[in-house]
């Protein structure tokens, strides 16, 4: 069967590692948590625990056409100065948006304040009429909110024409988050699946939902396609991918999922 172009819409996606993705649609380009260096590995406290499994699949200086960089929180593998300073120079019209706690840190990187936008849960961010972003609270591992109601950790619901994309950032799941997400019909969801445990907590590593929870969340919300992230870059902070695939196949038959390879480019297509 053949379909006319008017019968579907699409988002062009490139996976760049950890939870980082680049989304392109209708000439508007968004990067989320780009981490394209070895900053974490170079920390004095790394002690060989942190070792990238693969090199950055692209170079930050090649990102010359970004309109918005979304940051979910200030952890180094999500808000990396080495990456963001290069992107700021390569895409001089790009806006950098994220939790308010990130704004002073971005200024310290040399990014001018007029290119920064603090995001607050419950307050939509309209991007030049091309894209609407709803900041969603995240629990990493707790929800942290300051006295003025600004979250430290965020995910993002992106409403792009008739496609709805959810990027969870780093988060556990709970009934409050599920209730919020039930307010959306999610076509494409990016969920972290590296999990958590006592021994990683001892090392100061905040955890996320695990594979079983991510698969169950996608099924409950009737996501069109779920994309697991945060499982392949740092093996010591991962539970692998096999559990997620098994969970989908054995318990949620029919749930669509896509597993990216580093640097892979993919068209997500939604039939109208």
TrEMBL record:
Which reaction equations make up its catalytic activity?
3',5'-cyclic UMP + H2O = UMP + H(+); 3',5'-cyclic CMP + H2O = CMP + H(+)
Q: What is this protein called?
A: MBL fold metallo-hydrolase
Q: InterPro entries of this UniProt entry? A: Metallo-B-lactamas (IPR001279), RibonucZ/Hydroxyglut_hydro (IPR036866), UPF0173_UPF0282_UlaG_hydrolase (IPR050114)
Q: Which UniProt keywords apply?
A: Hydrolase
PANTHER family registered for this protein in UniProt: L-ASCORBATE-6-PHOSPHATE LACTONASE ULAG-RELATED (PTHR43546:SF9), UPF0173 METAL-DEPENDENT HYDROLASE MJ1163-RELATED (PTHR43546)
Which residue ranges does the record assign to the Metallo-beta-lactamase domain? 30-231
From the record, what ranges are coiled-coil? none
> To which species is this protein native?
Paenibacillus solisilvae
Pfam families documented for this protein: Lactamase_B_2
Purpose of the protein:
Counteracts the endogenous Pycsar antiviral defense system. Phosphodiesterase that enables metal-dependent hydrolysis of host cyclic nucleotide Pycsar defense signals such as cCMP and cUMP.
């Amino acid at each position: 069967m053949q379909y006319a172009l008017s019968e579907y819409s699409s988002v062009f996606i490139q996976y760049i590692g950890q939870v980082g993705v680049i989304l392109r649609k209708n000439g508007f380009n968004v990067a989320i948590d780009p981490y394209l260096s070895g900053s974490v590995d170079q920390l004095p406290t790394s002690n060989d625990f942190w070792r990238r499994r693969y090199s950055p699949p692209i170079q930050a200086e090649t990102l010359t056409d970004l309109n918005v960089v979304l940051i979910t929180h200030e952890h180094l593998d999500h808000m990396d100065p080495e990456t963001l300073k290069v992107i700021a120079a390569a895409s001089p019209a790009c806006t950098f948006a994220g939790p308010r706690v990130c704004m002073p840190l971005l200024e310290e990187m040399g990014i001018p304040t007029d290119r920064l936008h603090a995001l607050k849960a419950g307050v939509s961010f309209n991007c030049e009429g091309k894209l609407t972003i709803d900041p969603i609270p995240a629990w990493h591992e707790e929800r942290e909110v300051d006295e003025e109601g600004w979250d430290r950790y965020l995910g993002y619901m992106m409403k792009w024409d008739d496609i709805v994309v959810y990027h969870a950032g780093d988060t556990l799941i709970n009934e409050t988050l599920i209730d919020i997400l039930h307010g959306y019909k999610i076509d494409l969801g990016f969920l972290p699946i590296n999990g958590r445990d006592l021994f990683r907590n001892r090392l100061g590593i905040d955890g996320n939902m695990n594979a079983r929870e991510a698969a169950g969340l996608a099924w409950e919300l009737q996501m069109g396609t779920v994309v697991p992230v945060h499982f392949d870059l740092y093996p010591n902070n991962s539970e692998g991918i096999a559990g997620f695939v098994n969970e989908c196949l054995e318990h949620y038959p029919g749930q669509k999922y896509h597993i990216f390879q580093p640097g892979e480019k993919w068209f997500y297509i939604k039939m109208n």
